[in-house]
Amino acid sequence: MLLNTNLRAEIIIDYGKLRPMIGWLERNCVGEWGYTCLVPAGRDGGMYEFYFEEERDYMAFVVWKQ
Fold it and tell me: Which spans in 1-66 are helix H?
């Protein structure tokens, strides 16, 4: 887990959609990033918290997810 970052985004991800999202992050982020599963996906989407070291990665992620 990254320390000392306020760059966090909580999002709901449908079952089976986490892996493509991680792929996007691996291709597009320049700094450290990570995520925590708050509520696992099942019939309903899961709740995940993503955190970023670089503001530009955070902003790209937020814009991409809109």
Answer: 18-28, 55-65
Q: What is the pTM of this model?
A: 0.85
Angle 59-19-39 (CA atoms, 0-180°, nearest 5)? 80
Asked if 16 contacts 44 with a C-beta cutoff of 8 angstroms, the reply is no
Task: Measure the CA–CA gap between 46 and 31, rounded to whole angstroms.
Answer: 25
Helix (H, G, I), strand (E, B) or coil at 27: helix
Residue 23 — very low, low, confident or very high, per pLDDT cuts 50/70/90?
A: very high
> Does some domain include residue 57?
yes
- Look at the chain and report how many structural domains it folds into: 1
